[in-house]
Amino acid sequence: MDSFEINKIIAAVLVTILLVFGIEKISDIVFHVEKPAVEGYKVEVKLASTSSTEGNSESQVDISALLALGNIEDGKKIFKKCAACHSINADGKNKIGPKLWNVIFRPVGSIADYKYSKALVSYGKEWTWEEMNGFLIKPSKWI
Q1: Is 9 contained in some domain?
Q2: How many domains does the chain have?
């Protein structure tokens, strides 16, 4: 390979580099985009009123209206998450959680062969629809 061949190869590499940088500069001029003053997207957030007359929305839920909207098939699908810890059969055994057969209108913490937390044992109420709804929304806040 003579020096003329080497010069052609070096010239080709240099021309390629110059073309890449030149095209980049030309495209910046042709397709100029104004940069925003503040980077990112502006997100509109509607703040909820903190009026003291509103009260706790969790305690104001009408459970009978929610029950009327219920669907047994949807409930079966949702209960699959609960079935890992609870049984719903009459002859079902306690698992990680107590069996739930006839739980409504039963005293809280009343299954003899299940070890409940002190909070549930001392709660002293019975499971009504409202109690169960409040407990399922946020157990630590309800008990």
Answers
A1: no
A2: 1
Q: How far apart (Å, rounded) are the C-alpha atoms in residues 63 and 135? A: 12
Domain that holds residue 101: 63-142
- Residues of 71-96 as b/e, b for ≥16 C-beta within 10 angstroms? eeeeeeeeeeeeeeebbeeeeeeeee
Beta strands in 1-143 (DSSP E): none
Phi, psi for 82 (deg, rounded to 5): -75, -30
Helix (H, G, I), strand (E, B) or coil at 83: coil
Residues of the chain with pLDDT under 50: 52-55, 57-58
pLDDT for position 61: 67
Length, in residues, of the chain: 143
8 A C-beta contact, residue 121 and residue 109 = yes
Give domain status of residue 33, yes or no: no
Tokens, residue 137: 């929304």
| Domain CATH code at residue 128 | 1.10.760.10
In angstroms and rounded to an integer, the radius of gyration of the C-alpha atoms of the chain is 34
pLDDT score of 60? 61
